[in-house]
Specification:
Layout lengths: L7 H52 L6 H8 L4 E6 L11 H15 L7 E6 L8 H10 L6 E7 L5 E7 L9 H41 L12 H47 L6 H28 L5 E4 H14 L4 E4 L4 E5 L1 H19 L2 E8 L2 E7 L34 H11 L3 E6 L5 E8 L5 E2 L2
Parallel strand pairs: 6-8
Antiparallel strand pairs: 1-4, 2-3, 3-4, 5-7, 7-12, 8-9, 9-11, 10-11
């Protein structure tokens, strides 16, 4: 199966070419065989009539002139010998040809039995034909050096012998047949390419629509046109997209509503805790828990707001954006460096991209002591690598850290471990742009975060 083409379009073209070629060749063989049989029958009848006329001429000629007449009417393909005694070689007779010739001779010589008419083929002596040469003869109908001998007893008892070449019909695989096959293949290929492109165009549209849906649930719906089956599939796809968009919007609204409603009871609890008559250690713990809860609620509302924001895509300098993040951290006394010179124009959502790289670079500086950022431009892809020199992440938690509210630290201290929404936002933004984020521990120590983004038509790199 690995030898088969990978695309439906190529497979369809291959099936059409093979099917039509086999059908064309088979029809040519059937047509050629029928034509050859008709030509052979007509040729045999013509030869039989010719022999009958010549035999009648010689039979009515005086005996002394018969040898001269026979010599005079002999040619390249026909040689006539008149023999008074009529010695006939002992050979297997050609019954079918004998019947045709006997029918043509009957008006002139009456009914001829086997003693008066002999018809057989004389093959020249030579090496026996090999199976390969016999097969080639059957396929190409190549001429064979054979002669047909017809021996007839005349009315006076003498014999006349006709030696004529066996006519071969035109071969099936002639030049015209090959040209016809090539023209058929070329015409089939042109029509197949056009037809498969027309047929598979809806599949390509579905693929692009599915890719857009994976990046943006609010993307434009698929056009509901084309054949009936395509329209039905497009309607089902658009309905699925509307349901997904409704599902996501409902969950975001629910998250925002719950987070908003939690602010009031948290505020009341804070006021009641602060109004306790005596400050105790438990009161401080309660206030810290309330601060963390409020921070979680604020982060959840910010997360829902960011997801609900429909920021338009536009071209921007991705290198300048990352460089500004690193410069701001460097101005704050932190170790952040971006290894890239020139422009890296990318089409996307600038604010979302800034949140993505700010989160990754700040995490590298906060937990890995430094941030070493570099960009790699590949055919069709852009990769941005953020590396640090920290302790890394356990291998079994490299994927778990992308879950919302998942933290490696168990202290639940927002000043050390955060709230666990940063990496979740990072991956969400990257996948909304058709890319992804992967984390890996470096062999020399530290963590490496690789952001892979698809390039687009408006992307230009200068380095």
């Amino acid at each position: 199966m690995k030898l088969l083409p990978d695309s439906i379009r190529t497979r369809t073209i291959l099936v059409l070419l093979i099917g039509l070629t086999v059908s064309h060749l088979a029809s040519m063989v059937v047509y050629s065989t029928d034509r050859e049989q008709a030509l052979a029958t007509a040729n045999e009848q013509r030869q039989a009539d010719r022999l009958a006329v010549l035999a009648q001429v010689i039979d009515t000629t005086t005996e002394s002139l018969r040898p001269e007449v026979a010599e005079a009417i002999s040619g390249q393909t026909l040689h006539i010998v008149w023999d008074r005694k009529g010695a006939v070689p002992d050979s297997h007779q050609e019954d079918e040809r004998r019947a045709v010739i006997a029918a043509s001779l009957r008006p002139h010589f009456g009914v001829l039995d086997d003693s008066r008419l002999h018809v057989f083929v004389i093959s020249p002596p030579g090496p026996a034909a090999s199976p390969l040469s016999s097969t080639l003869h059957l396929l190409h109908h190549a001429p064979i050096d054979q002669r047909l001998q017809v021996s007839l007893e005349l009315k006076d008892g003498s014999w006349i012998h006709f030696h004529l070449s066996v006519a071969e019909t035109a071969g099936t695989w002639s030049r015209q047949a090959l040209v016809s096959t090539l023209v058929m293949l070329l015409g089939t290929l042109v029509i197949a390419v056009w037809a498969t492109r027309w047929i598979t165009a809806p599949l390509a549209s579905f693929a692009h629509a599915a890719e857009r849906l994976g990046m943006d649930v609010s993307a434009q719906p698929l056009a509901e046109d084309g054949p009936q089956e395509v329209r039905a599939a497009a309607r089902a796809f658009n309905q699925m997209q509307r349901r997904i968009r409704s599902f996501v919007e409902d969950r975001l609204q629910m998250l925002a509503a719950v987070s908003h409603d939690l602010r009031t009871p948290i505020t009341r609890l804070r006021l009641r805790t602060e109004q306790l008559p005596i400050e105790t250690e438990q009161q401080d713990k309660m206030l810290r828990d309330l601060d963390e809860m409020e921070q979680m609620v604020s982060s959840s509302m910010a997360f829902a707001k960011d997801e609900a924001t429909d920021e338009p895509s536009q071209p921007f300098d991705l290198a300048a954006l990352i460089g500004s993040i690193c410069d701001d951290l460097t101005d704050a006394g932190l170790d952040a460096d971006f290894d890239w010179s020139g422009r890296l124009v990318y089409r996307g959502r600038p604010l979302a991209m800034k949140r993505l790289f700010s989160n990754l670079i700040e995490n590298a500086v906060r937990y890995g002591q430094c941030a070493r950022v570099r960009a790699v431009s590949l055919p069709g892809r852009i990769k941005v690598v953020v590396e640090d020199q920290g302790p890394g992440i356990p291998e079994d938690q490299l994927e778990a850290v992308f879950k919302p509210f998942y933290r490696l630290e168990s202290s639940r201290n927002k000043r050390t471990g955060g709230l666990g929404l940063g990496l979740s936002n990072v991956r969400t933004i990257a996948r909304a742009h058709g890319g992804d984020v992967r984390l890996a521990n470096r062999p020399e120590g530290g963590l490496s975060a690789v952001v892979s983004l698809p390039s687009n038509s408006e992307e230009r790199q200068e380095s």
